[in-house]
Amino acid sequence: MEAEIAQSNGERLAAPATRLLPYARRKEAAAPTRMEAEAAVRTLIRWAGDDPDRDGLRDTPARVARAYEEWFRGYREHAGNLLERTFDEIGGYQDPVLLRDIPVHSFCEHHMAPIRGRAHIAYLPAQHVVGISKLVRVVETFSRRLQIQERLTDDIANVIDVSLRPLGVAVVIEADHDCMTTRGVRTHATRMITRRTLGAFAEDADMRRDFFNAIGI
Ligand SMILES: [Zn+2]
């Protein structure tokens, strides 16, 4: 089975469908048991210099394992499925649909440290539009995996492009990375901005500028 992936030049190229699947469904990796996960957390507590058996920390490994199920549930979800239900009656509407300030909570894959920010999405519908909450869920699904901000931006743009077949799509993410702001050189005020434009947003400078103006970048 083949799916299509949008390229940076706006073309859609055939690519293995597995590219859009969560990792867990791509690879038959034996999942660790909950006990193994909790033992790993105990090791990290000791590595940090504390005693996992003291009162305040005794239940922490179990809590962390449960929190991981929530923070990384994106591995068990398929973002494309979220966009299957579309509305085709768009009347004479011909302008971009813009969704601003979608919260982003993710974890960088280099340090497993939080990435916090906002995503802005615009698409120019051809035939299909989708419920606002579905786009928010797409951002959540890709965010709740270990990520780099560049790929997160690409993944969101690509799945909208492949699923909705719009005339264009643009995604901007602004985010703070705890691994940059709390350690090393401590560049506190550093905020990273990534963007991906496809189709009409890549080709039409006015449309692109309107989008960037609307989100204030
Ligand atoms: Zn990092």
Describe the structure concisely for a colleague.
By secondary structure, this protein is α+β, with helices and mostly antiparallel strands. The chain contains 9 helices and 7 strands, in the order ββααααββαβαβαβαα.
Structure report:
The chain has about 220 residues and is α+β, with helices and mostly antiparallel strands. It folds into 2 domains: about 1-20 and about 75-215, GTP Cyclohydrolase I, domain 2, CATH 3.30.1130.10; about 35-75, no CATH class. It has helices spanning about 25, 35-50, 60-70, 80, 130-145, 150-165, 180, 200-205, 205-215, and strands at about 1-5, 10-15, 95-110, 115-125, 145, 170-175, 190-200. A 5-stranded mixed sheet has the order 5-3-4-6-7, with helices on both faces. Strand 3 and strand 4 form a beta hairpin. Helix 5 runs antiparallel to helix 6. Bound molecules: zinc ion. Zinc ion binds near residues 108, 110, 113, 177 and 179.
How would you describe this structure in keywords?
217 residues, alpha+beta, GTP Cyclohydrolase I, domain 2, two-stranded antiparallel ribbon, 9 helices, 7 strands, 38% helix, elongated
Q: Class by helix and strand content?
A: alpha+beta
Approximate helicity band? 25-40%
Q: How is the quaternary structure best described?
A: single chain
CATH topology of the largest domain: GTP Cyclohydrolase I, domain 2
Radius of gyration: 20 Å
Shape: elongated
Number of helices: 9
Q: What is the CATH superfamily label of the largest domain? A: GTP cyclohydrolase I, C-terminal domain/NADPH-dependent 7-cyano-7-deazaguanine reductase, N-terminal domain
Strand order of the largest sheet: 5-3-4-6-7
Q: How confident overall, as mean pLDDT?
A: 88
Low-confidence stretches: 1-19
Chemical compounds bound to the protein: zinc ion
* Total domain modules: 2
What percent of residues are in strands? 15-25%
What is the terminal-to-terminal distance? 39 Å
Q: What is the makeup of the main sheet?
A: 5 strands, mixed
CATH class placement of the largest domain: Alpha Beta
Named at the architecture level, the CATH assignment of the largest domain is 2-Layer Sandwich
Secondary-structure element pattern, one letter each: EEHHHHEEHEHEHEHH
